[in-house]
Every structure is written in C-alpha cells, then in structure tokens.
Amino acid sequence: MKKWTCLLLGFLFLTHALPAQKATMGALTILDKPTAGTFPLAGQNAAPTILVDASDAAVVRIAANALAGDIALVTGTRPKVITDLKQYKGSLVIAGTIGQSPTIDGLIRAKKLDVSKIKGKWETFTLSTINTPLKGVQQALVIAGSDRRGTAYGLFELSRRAGVSPWVWWADVLPQKRKALYVRPGTFSSAEPSVKYRGLFINDEDWGLNPWARKNMDTAIRDMGPKTYAHLFELLLRLRANVIWPAMHDSTKAFWYYPDNPKVADQYAIVIGSTHCDMMLRSNTFEWQKNFEHEYGVQPGTYRYDSNKTQIYKYWEDRVAAAKNYEAMYTVGMRGVRDGTIVGPTTREGKIALTETIIQDQRGLFQRYFGGPTNALQIFCPYKEVLGLYQGRLKVPEDVTLVWTDDNFGYIRQLSTPAEQKRSGASGIYYHLSYLGGPHDYLWLSTTSPALISYEMTKGYQFGANRFWVVNVGDLKPAELETQFFLDLAWNINLWTPEKAHTYARHWAEQTFGKELAAPIAALKSEYYRLAQQGKPEHMGILRFDSASRRERLAAYDRLLEQVEAVKARLPERLKNAFFELVEYPAKGAALMNQKILFAQMSREVPAGDRPLAVDLSQKAKNAFDRIRALTAHYNTGIEGGKWNGIITYKPRNLSVYGMPEVAAPEILEDSLRSPKVYDRRYLDTTSVAAALKPGIVSLPATGFFAKHETKGERIAALTGLGLNGTSISRYPFTGASFTNEEAGKAPYVEYKVSLPAGTYRLSLKCLPTQAIHKGRKLGLAVSVDNGPLQFVNVAHPEEDRVWKANLLRGYSEGTVPLQIRAGDPQILRVYLLDTGLAFSRLDVAAE
Prior knowledge:
Elements: H1 2-15, E1 30-31, E2 39-42, E3 49-51, H2 58-75, E4 80-82, E5 92-97, H3 102-109, E6 125-131, E7 139-145, H4 148-161, E8 181-183, E9 187-189, E10 197-201, H5 209-216, H6 226-238, E11 243-245, H7 260-267, E12 271-272, H8 284-287, H9 292-296, H10 309-323, E13 329-331, H11 348-370, E14 377-380, H12 385-391, E15 401-405, E16 427-432, H13 450-462, E17 468-472, H14 480-491, H15 504-513, H16 515-533, H17 547-570, H18 576-604, H19 611-638, E18 698-701, E19 707-709, E20 715-720, E21 727-732, E22 749-754, E23 759-767, E24 780-785, E25 791-794, H20 802-810, E26 813-821, E27 827-833, E28 840-847
Parallel strand pairs: 3-4, 3-5, 5-7, 10-11, 10-17, 11-12, 13-14, 14-15, 15-16, 16-17
Antiparallel strand pairs: 1-8, 2-8, 6-7, 6-9, 18-28, 19-22, 20-21, 22-27, 23-26, 23-28, 24-25, 24-27
Helix pairs in contact: 2-4, 6-7, 10-11, 13-14, 15-16, 16-17, 17-18, 18-19
C-alpha cells in the first residue's frame, strides 16, 4: 500500500505541474519511508519545525500555520512554527520571501539557495532541500517565494504533495493518514501563473453563504464578516488565487463596513475588488441605499452623476482614501445604483459622454491618492448594456483592463480585436458558474462542465485575456470542482486545453478520493454534465421533451443514481461526507429534479381511464420532491455535526420550479404543498421557447466524419465533454482566420456519408450556443451535397431575444438548410467550418 501511495503522489505532482516547470535533482516528491538523503518532514522520530521571519508578510505565517495543521492531519504530529532559530529542534522547514526574509536573503548571499528562476517574477516559488543551510542545521527544506503570495503558494504546494486537498476544510476532504513523511532531495521552481489576477466573486449569497455565516461563523455580527472571509481567503490561497469580489447582495452589509474585513484580506495577501456594477470599491446596495445617511448624515440624492456629482464624487473619494494602503483593484465607469443601466442621459451618445467624464474624474482621484492616474489597478467591465456603449466608441484609457463577460450562461459575448490586444491594460474575463436572472436562474447546482469552461476561457486567453479572470460562484457550494478547475486553468492555461479538459474530472477525483475510485467518479461527473447540457435542473420547469426523450432521460438519471450508490459503497469512512458534498448531493439533486418534473408531466398526460397509472406517476413525482428535501436537510444538519447548517437550500428565491409541480392525483400531496409558489415573473419570460430536442431521420454526431481537410497551422479538434451528447468538433487554435462566403472553399471541412432516398430534406446543424469572437467575425458554416453548390448558415445570435433564450435552455444553437437529394447511394455531406469559436455538435436530417 505504501508503494502505491508513493506512486500516486508522484503522479499527482506530475499531473499538477505548472507551465514550463522543470525540476532538477529529482521531483521533490514525498515518501512514506526514508531513502538515501531524504529529508524527514514529519513522523515517528521527527519533531518538525517551520521557521519564518518575523519581518516577513503576515500571509507567510498564516500559510505556515496552515501547513502545520495539514501535516498534523496526515501524521498526527504538528510542526511548531517559530520565528527564532533558537527554538528549533528536529527537522527544519524554512519559508520566506525574497527581500523580506533575512534568512532567505542570507541563504541567497551564501550561494546555498539558487533563486535565479523566480527572482523578480510574479507569484513564483522554489522548494529545495539544502544541506547545512545554517549553523547547527544539518539539512532543511527551504520554501522561497518571489513575493508574499509566491511564498504562501509554495507552502500550500507542500500540503498538496502531502495529500491534503484544497477543500480540506470547505468540503471536509480528510487526507489519508500516514505514519511519516520524507521528502526526496531536489529542487523545484514554479513558473509564473498564466493569468496575473485570478479570483472569485461571492454572489447571490442570500440563500446559502450568508445564512450559514450568521449561524455558524460571524455570530456576533450575524453577517458575513472577518471570520467567514478568513476561511474564504485561505481557500483562495490553497487554490492559488489572489482576488476577491466580496458578497454584495441585500442580505449582506458592505465588505468595508466591517473594518476587520480589509485587514484580514491584507493579512492573507488578497487583492480586494468590486463587481461590474459597484464602482470604486463601493457596494451600492448597502452603502448608497441603506447606509448613506448613517455614514454622511444626510439622505442620498439620485445616483445620477450629471445631477448629483458632488455626493457621488465624495462617496467614491472616501473609499479611495480608505483603501489606499491596501492592495486593491478599482472598477471604473458607472452603472445604476443596483445592477442596471446608468441613470441620466436617454441617448446612447449622452450616456457615452457622461461615462467618459466619470472615468476622467475617477482617474483624477487616482492622481491625487496614488500620484498618477495609472498607479492604481483599474478594470472596465462592458457588461450587458455597457457593452453597447463600448461598441458605440466609448473611450476607455488604454492602461485600464477591459474585462469581457460571458452571457451569464457560460458563453463569452466578445473578446479583444487585434487593435484591442495591443492595449497596455490588456483584457480579462468575468465568467459565471451561477446566475440570478433571465431567462431563468441557476443558483442551486453547478453544472457548467470543465470542457465548456476550458473552451471559452482558452478562447479568451488566446485573444489576450490574460490579465484578470474572476468567476461568479454564487454562494460557493456546491460548485467546488468547477471553481477549482477555473482557477487551475488560470494558473496553467496549457494543462487543461479544450481537448484535455474532459479528463480533469478524473484528475480531480484522484486527488480528492484516490486512484481506485477516480474512474467511476469521473464517469458519473461526465454523465452529470452531459445531461445538464441538454437542460439544467433549474430549467426543467420550462423545457419540454417528447415521450421518448423523457424515457431516455429518466433512464440515464437512474443509471447515474446507481453509479453514485456503487461508488459510495466503496468509500472509506473518512471520505463519505466529502463525497456527499462534492458528488452525491449535486448528482442526486439533478436526478431527483428531473424525476419530479418529468413524472409530474407524464401523470398529467395519462388517459382518463387509467387512474392507477396517474396515481403511480404522481406519487413518483412526490417521492422525488420529498427526497430532495431530505437530501438538503441531511447536508445542513446530518453531516459534520451540523457544520454546514444553512449552507444549502433546494429552493433559492423560492422559484416555482423548486416546488411540487401539479400532478394528476392531487390527493397524494400534503396540504402544505398545495399553496402557490412565490417567484419573480420578470425572470421567467420564456414565451414561445422551443426547447425540445428532436432527432431527424439521420442523426450523426459531428465527430462522426469519415474525412477531414485542415489548413496549415491549425487542426479540427474532436472535443469530448462539450455539446450535445458530449462531443463536438472545432477549429483549433481559436486564432485561426475567418473565411468569407466567397472564400469558403478554402476553409477547413469535414465529410459525412449518408444514405437517403431521392427527395427534399432539411438539414439541421446543431452547435454550442457560443458567440462570435469579436466584430468582423461570425459563426459560419457552409454545406454541400456531393460537391454541389454551397449553402451558408451563421449560428451567431447576439440579441438576447426568444431565440437566444431557447438556445441557452436547450443547450444548442441551430442553423438549417434545405437538401435536395438525387438518386444515388451514399451521399457525401461536406461541412465547412468558416470561423473559429464554433463548436459543431450534431447534424440531423429530417424530411421536408
């Protein structure tokens, strides 16, 4: 068993390597038994000590103490963290930051520590075993960072190699016990992260994170406060992130309201930002609407800069003055007091002119408090209607980072043009794993696959979005896997390309649950994502499937539930709660939601004479609803002694889809289930949404081509885990040229064989509902039959209308062309891929 543990740890190190990382003198792996020259980190005869300098950043001591706790979890022996070498005994770990740690700087001067690969770089670290580093010390493991976060990441890298998950606290992933830990001698140096600023947006916290924090963490203030944020910030460091957009909903007081919040952020070396709608680190929902009078002694006027500049400017200036000594990132520009359009001028030209004036005034504050308009980190986020202003030639200073957004459902709306890629501020991305809004929320479960995240974020990166990534994780749980994937990708963009991303679930499962269970867990996660692509659990009240599709879907979810139970039976006791949180709850929740909705629909369609069947189906729907409630109650109070009480609700915002649907046999329902559900109709306008997926006479996956033609410098990539039925094809890399209709014959293409009788048909080309990359590009395809004339479709649909809603809900966009089939067998269908960023999933041929 120890042999396999060693091999597993070695594999985990290799699969978790960073870009361009090369280790010398061995891979610095951790072993259970000593061999020649190994460093005794902890165990039976080792009394480990971790030395940090008192003059180093606070985050170094925080990470050192976290490492000590991790080692104690693994071995039962807790290292002592010291700042004075006189307290040293046993084995010694030295951790410090170049230029801030006298001990590290002394080792560099003495030429005992080589930091040439990391010095002066961003958030890098080196791990080295060094003989006789200091007087009286025979051997030490040295962790040196190029900056304070680099040192912290290095300390947590050692935790990972010891088998401790980043989710050790947040998802109760208990590590396997080991009697001792020995480090094989060598040196390891990390490379810089792919994306400079990487972080999380805590949002829509009203139904999970905030109620939980009030009950269990910041109980004195009954709000999300410094205790909650300390745990969140440690998670960020474990995930190698560095930015927080704090919670900002009505239920939560502003981050800056509690003075200890920014202090804790600084201690953990976390960059403080604010959302796309909360400018200049202010949180308008609380600070303007609720607390302005308390702060300033007067009522706030209209949040309108052209008529109330004095109040608004002072409001912003005071936050800049309070934040000037913290590492912060400012959102510039202006939107409404809440998440809405800017108030003031009614024309687009007027809004643009006012926004440009606002940005100029905001940068005047940076001149005053930081000595120059470019001396503060600044982002501009063209979100929703602001994108229209930007497209209308709104001028944004070139040192400001443009933060592009997805459409709230995982598909990026626009990326930088060649001219925009030359901006000194570069660009970034604001992405969603959770969303409150139309056409319907998805706040309960996290179902965005790593394959889709990689496809969209890699596309963004290749078009220059490497300065800043932030992901909206809602109230964090149960989005743990997807959150980690997003940040792992930001750390190393080359490790999880769109072609490899489908393997991440297995990698993650092996890290979290061990090699033996990795394959079955990955398989059930893959099926979970595939089914959700055809309809998220939260959208089942809108979607309509035909009878055959319903049966197929219910059978697939039955198999998924069987897989969950099979894996659960093989788990060691220490991992059962973690499995419940990370895998079981989302998988069962999705399956039961589908059962509840689909069985209820089926019950209402039973012929009037078959009352027993109607009752049976109604009862099955009711049973699924009861199981969802019981499952959620177990999450909140049945595991970890109630640690997570309040963290999960099965009915965020109490939308109707989460309640008990109408059934043919209402007598089976409790009285409490007969009351109408409460929901906000503003977000449920789905009139005339055609969402059913209906295969044709011939239905082929896009990957089922028999021949392909690729152009120089790119390839047609087959992508697993992406699109309908879990496969798509796409041109890669994304930076390839677009082809006009006139140039279509030169574009890459694939060919399919079909056998159809002579006649008239309609060909449907189904694609992922992505957006065109930027102005001047489309999402075009061209089709020919037996080398006949080309027909063209463009599946890009930027308007947020009923077609867009349908595309999001059913998981695909569609282009159709007529087919005239002459006698002959078989026919060759050729499909040209005219643009990049187009993920082609399936073709269906139906009779006209």
